[in-house]
Amino acid sequence: MLGDLPLWLADALVVLGVTIMTIGVYGVIRMPDLYTQLHAASKSVFVGVVSLCFASIVTGDVAIVARVFLIAVLLLLTTPVSAHVIARGAYLEGQRMETPGAIDESGQHRASDPR
Length: 115
Description:
Layout: H1 5-30, H2 34-59, H3 62-92
């Protein structure tokens, strides 16, 4: 019975990772503006990928762990960078924050701006 424990743990971690990423998709659909949608997407990808990495480590297969590690490093490096680039482009285009109580600390977009 204990011999099957790593497989059950790996399955549970995969389900956890997929669930977290699904919640992130819901956040992208539900959030009011681009900036909070990017936050939901990037955080869920990060936590979901970490969970999937732990699932591959539990399996113990060196080839799978190596591949997943390379994929995880690629995702963990490119996800925040791409989110930053998209947010910066939206900001430069004048995309406003629609979240209630959001404050633009740069002072570029004032409340009197009718956009």
